[in-house]
User: Fold these one by one.
Assistant:
Number 1:
Amino acid sequence: MAIDGFIGREWLLRNVGCICKRKFTSDILLVKHIRTVLKENKDILVLYPEARYTLAGTNASLPNSLGKLVKMMNVPVVMLKMHGHYLNSPCWNLTERGNRISAEYRQIIPKERLSEMTSEEINTVLADSFRYDEYAWQKKNGIRIAFPDRAKGLHHILYQCPHCLEEFKMDSAGSRIWCDACGKAWTMSDLGELQAESGETEFPHIPDWFEFERRFIRTQVESGTYRFSDDVTVDSLPNAKGYIRLGTAHLTHDANGFRLEGSFEGKPFLLVKEPKTMYACHIEYDYFGKGDCIDLSTLEDTYYLYPRTQRTVVTKISLATEELYRIKKGSEQIG
Ligand SMILES: [Zn+2]
């Protein structure tokens, strides 16, 4: 469980068995805790390997180390997959819609098969099992969501206009999303499909629009033109007691990864996270009313960064983190 979930209830969560973790850090101690749960306590370990909310109702990348961990622990792997939670309360607008949910529960790797599988083969089974698309599930099951504000907030994830390609000029309200740069608008149906109010509908399926944004970033990353730079307000979470406002610093994100630089209470501060050390990053939309944020962790602290001047940029930063990692890993394997 991520450390921010422990705020104000650390005693309770530790007593029911939650293991505290800082997101997207390599943490050897965590492996030891997992071993204690499985081998010493002979208990069941519940793991959320995606470690984040789904942004567009589709699965996120899993860490490569997961297959190795499963092989090392040598226990059967069972998956509980719940559908409908994202549709009920998507991270870009948490108001509950009240739609029905369903769950699948099945063993995906029996213990007997583990000894003959490589960690790569285990990763393939895990990745296949984790594939999901909540909007496809909605359509297939005919789940109608008539919630009037069903598209409100959608511009957080659909931040780029597929018509004029402008970024961060999208906005949304009610059942509509539109581009303030070119004026094109789309309406979201009660089955979660988008339809252009005039002209061609580029992406009726929301995850397709999201993947179009990812492809755009990938070309920027490959051509070396991807760059984010802004002043950010920095909150620190050294323990589960609460956030500490550090002040303002400068964040850049480019081919060299994240660089957070500033000075707090007269002391220089620098945090660098290279692309190959983060296969993904965690973001929040309008976090506790403080705005959109990115969080970056070391093993000792977690920094919540709120861009000062740019709006709806955190989704792009999150996608760029994943693409920078893939390209870096890919070039290392070729090299
Ligand atoms: Zn536009």
Note: The pocket of zinc ion is lined by residues 161, 163-164, 166, 179, 181-182, 184 (CB under 6 Å).
Number 2:
Amino acid sequence: MIAVRFHGRGGQGAKTASRILGTAAFLEGFVAQDSPIYGAERRGAPVAAYTRIAKEPIRERGLIVHPDLVVVADASLIQDPAARVIEGIDERTVVFINSQMTPEQVHAQGFLPGRLTTLDLTDIALQQFGKRGAISALLGAVAGRFVGLRWESIEDAIGRELADLGLADAVITQNQTAARHCYETVPAADFEAGTSRQAAAVQLRAPTYESPARGTARITSGPNSAIRSMSGWRTFRPVLRPDLCNGCWLCFANCPEGAITIKPDGKPAIYYPHCKGCLDCVEVCPTDALTVERETEAVNKT
Ligand code: SF4
Ligand code: SF4
């Protein structure tokens, strides 16, 4: 069995990427299983998705603790303990990171074990689409390349999965074009198919049942959002052009994180440590006073 774990931020497409990979494998005659985990999360928060591929029925369920391949949609996740990216990675695990950094630069920062490879999918998507957006098709294509699936299967899977999401034919074709570029250019890694250590490492346990009282939500500590920095969540950041701002405050009203305040002159100000880069403010701004800049590398941001 091959065990693939995707890590991304809500809205980047990790869940759909795992579905594309599973569907492509299924189309080639394999047994496939995919499932996401994101809990009561919000856009920009860490999410993970799992794909298992095998020739025989897959009886494992749940989290993939010891993956053969890890696909990371956003380099900022590596330093986020909540994302648990490095969990279960050993010297045989192939780790792909969507990043402007080379594998040597990543290793130089002491980030990761495993067989590391990188490609700047965000830049490829920007070139293909002309704007930011989900990179699920690109992630799925890269993963499919590593595990040895044919391009035709991945192309078919992208078409099916993105059509299920309601995307227009022209957008699906754009995704397939960008994904094919990634499939053909992602640097090779020494992937050992079928080396999953999951089955040997995990003990099966019988489920236990607790009293309903234990499941009742209780909040026992005070609010802490003010001390939580979300700078590392951003792939793109909003930037204000005060000369174009008419002071309508729509950005202030729509920011889900309260990261925008109003200055005495009536113009907004963005507090970047609390800005997660959702860009809702950019969407609602009627005068294009908020522009978008790509973060150069999603670490140590303010
Ligand atoms: S300032 Fe804009 S991009 Fe940042 S969290 Fe608020 S709405 Fe999202
Ligand atoms: S939505 Fe745009 S125009 Fe309105 S206050 Fe915000 S930046 Fe200014």
Note: The radius of gyration is 21 Å.
